[in-house]
Specification:
single chain; 361 residues; alpha+beta; conserved putative lor/sdh protein from methanococcus maripaludis s2 fold; OB fold (Dihydrolipoamide Acetyltransferase, E2P); Helix Hairpins; 6-stranded antiparallel β-barrel; 5-stranded antiparallel β-sheet; 22 strands; 28% helix; elongated
């Protein structure tokens, strides 16, 4: 019985080892199985023919608020980044001098009003006396002149009051439009001088792009031309239209303004943009074509960026790239990949350098 039990144990152990070896062989076969991949060819992309430029976003409505009067700032009601509505109080400037001038003007108006009323009564009386031939022509002329002078004096005093009241608008500075405060140049207690910027405000709902176009390409840009604006910081592409082209160059580049066809809450003034105009470049040299690949196909390892290609024997080869501008979900390849080369766009398994691959539809 012991021999039979020992024999059964040996047979069971042999079957277990045989089954384990079989599973290992199957695992090795699965591990060495080619990874299905989808391959794309780098071709002459449409974007490669497009005229490109770079620039930044800017608010169409922007203003540096200042004053026409001199005085100490009593209070600054806003801070940087604060949203304001049109008419909101921004800065108050001490207006003691204006208050004194207003009181003086009011006194002058009262005095001029009294003189006018007296002259008017005398004038009306002498008109009646002249009709009754009880006053001479000279007396009537003198009284008429006195009346006109009193009338002009009253009008002048009233106009002076309007001027003083207008000055009060420069002691209480308000927002000219709705927007956000981008900077403050003064604080309470500082002396405000005429023309000195106090606070800057920019509108937030109406942005435009300021683009710098090379001298060799500016003749291809026309007003009303569509343009795609790529905002890399928020990974969005916004459609726009050229609205203004500068007539003079700055450092060999021309300023082009483009409006945005839509407003986005994520867009902010000052954001960097890349632009692609719907215009062909003059040069037909294929060496200047832009090579674009989808961002999803790129491999990032630290500060290095690469892409998998297929080498001899259908193995994956990781090739390092030097990349440039971003156009929506595609990236410009400056070196490491050229036109008509194939690269692996996606795979059904984890790729590594030297992994066997098989092309799938």
């Amino acid at each position: 019985m012991k021999k039979i039990g020992l024999l059964l144990f040996i047979v069971s152990l042999g079957l277990f080892v045989l089954n384990a070896c079989k599973n290992k062989e199957q695992h090795n076969e699965q591990t060495n199985a080619p990874i299905p991949v989808k391959v794309q060819s780098v071709g002459k992309s449409v974007e490669g023919d497009l005229l490109t430029a770079s620039g930044k976003l800017e608010a169409k409505n922007s203003a540096n608020l200042s004053t026409r009067m001199m005085g100490y700032v009593t209070k600054v009601y806003v801070t940087i980044g604060q949203k304001v509505n049109s008419g909101d109080l921004i800065i108050s400037i001490n207006n003691t001098d204006l208050e004194a001038k207003k009181a003086q003007v009011d006194a002058n108006i009262s005095q001029a009003t009294a003189a006018y009323n007296s002259a008017k009564k005398d004038y009306e009386r002498f008109v009646n006396l002249f009709k009754e031939q009880s006053a001479s022509q000279k007396e009537l002329d003198d009284m008429t002149a006195r009346y006109e002078m009193a009338k002009a004096g009253l009008e002048g005093a009233k106009e002076m009051k309007k001027e003083v009241l207008a000055q009060f608008a420069y002691s209480n500075i308000t927002a000219p439009f709705s927007g956000v405060v981008t900077n403050t140049f003064i604080k309470a207690g500082d002396m405000a001088n005429p023309g000195m910027p106090l606070v800057s405000i920019e509108g937030t709902t109406n942005l435009q792009a300021l683009l710098m176009v090379a001298e060799s390409d500016i003749s291809e840009v026309k007003e009303g031309m569509p343009v795609q604006l790529i905002v890399k910081s928020i990974n969005k592409t916004i459609a726009g239209k050229v609205i203004e082209i500068s007539g003079s160059a700055i450092g060999g580049q021309y300023l082009v303004k483009a409006s945005l066809n839509q407003n986005d809450a994520e867009l902010r003034s000052g954001m960097f943009v890349n632009a692609a105009f719907q215009a062909k470049k003059k040069s037909s040299d294929t060496s200047s074509d832009v090579v674009l690949v989808p961002q999803s196909a790129l491999i990032n390892q630290g500060q290095l960026t690469g892409i998998y290609t297929i080498g001899e024997g259908n193995v994956a080869i990781l090739r390092w790239l030097r990349i440039g501008k971003t156009f929506g979900d595609q990236v410009e390849v400056l070196s490491g990949l050229s036109n008509n080369e194939e690269y692996i766009a996606s795979s059904d398994g984890k790729l590594f350098n030297g992994a066997k691959v098989v092309k799938s539809n």
